[in-house]
Specification:
Oligomer: single chain
Order of helices and strands: EEHEEEEHEEEEHHHHHHHHHHHHEEEHHH
Distance between the termini: 38 Å
Number of helices: 17
Largest sheet: 4 strands, antiparallel
CATH class of the largest domain: Mainly Alpha
Shape: globular
CATH architecture of the largest domain: Orthogonal Bundle
Radius of gyration: 22 Å
Helix content: 40-55%
Amino acid sequence: MIDLNKIAKIKNNESISLKDIAIIDYEEFSHIVIELLKQPENHCLSYFAYKSNDNLQFIMAVGDDKNHNILLLSHLLKSDEKPELESLTKEIFALHIFEREIHENFGINFIEHPWLKPVRFANNRANKEMQINDYPFYSIKSEELHEVGVGPIHAGVIEPGHFRFICNGENVLHLEIQLGWQHRGIEKLFLDKENNLQRNLLAENIAGDTAIGHTTAFAQTIEALAGKQLGKQRHIERALALELERIAIHTGDISALCTDIAYHFGSNVFGILRTAIINFMQFWSGNRFGKSLIRVGGTHLPFTEELKVELLDVLSKYEKQFEEMVYITFRLPSVQNRFDFIGIVSPEQARTIGTVGLSARMSQIERDIRVSHPNFAYQEFPYETITAERGDVFARFLLKKKEIRKSISWIRNVMENYNFDASQNEKPDYQLKLKPSSFAISLVEAWRGEVCHCAITDEAGKLKHYKIKDPSMHNWKALELSLRNVEISDFPINNKSYNLSYCGHDL
């Protein structure tokens, strides 16, 4: 049985005093975590460590997706204790990436971890003697097999990442992805910059294609730490921007997948349609990616009734052309034959590795922060999750189409049932006073999946630790699994069907 008194419980976009998060011994921590994460309605949102005096304090946030709660647990490793812990990954494989990151950052040895390798080769890693060229790739010694290395420098305009294939002829037996080629030290910069406007600008650049998702999570984290309550309209505006970002990126992904199978008609039309959405974002905020729109405490760019008229017109034109093009594209035998049954990830695999967002929903897992941990906008205007069955390239291709339709429907519902009042505009407040010795968390269902930001303040109310998790942290492993027992020529369409983030991972 789990001792519920050892677990702190909060909601999304809330803060809690650090003294209310019980520090328990690691044996009990391990037992509780394993019991919680064996239940399918729970998953690990974040697990990290930070320096607390001379000790190392660990915090895990578990999402209770059924009851809309976030469960917080903590344990402490004292400075005079041996830097090693029994690995939880051997019981809950989805924790592998979190333990690997803690190992890399602080030198903690997780005993019996099956895959204790560096995650991103950050500048402030514990062991700087291990260089990125020394990465210990898995290998098989055989005269019948060969290895193929792709990247980190690619032929197209793409961020750096290295992909190591083990092949038998054209058939891929194993793929290992090595990231960590670019760093900006984003998490440390959040501590170095004491001005919330500077931090706001940092959040917009965690991952450029998720400017709205990450900036919303940042703003909500700071507002939670400050006890700042925003009006309804700010929450609805942020959700509108999130759904527009989702429509734009999914449309671009459909275009790119058409490109990868040489279907240029679809590539061109879907590319043009994406432009219509990002042009509206520029009309609203002055930037095609929505930068400058989300600000701590308010906004300089409130949504108005005039913008509503423009958006409905844009969506009407977009929807007509989108549906015409979708009708043609998704029925083409050449498209179906190229995407069907390629790169399958089963529901069991997807749950085991802890996928989130579309990468979970492609395999029948209803994991969606808009439903499991909704903020005001999605409570006021509920969202229904869509899933697919097969977990293949076509499932990911199909889900992007369906989610675009669902986002348009959600936006229309808001437009029809909410009157925007520009006079009720809260201006940004970059001088918010943060609660001392507190922890805050914000979850956002960005277009790739759940973005998670956590922040901790010291006794004076200054940021002491800032932790960012992009959904790609969970989902790169799914791409690796997608390549098993398929031809290496299927890599480009598999890779594009996920469209995971390099910079969101490397930070």
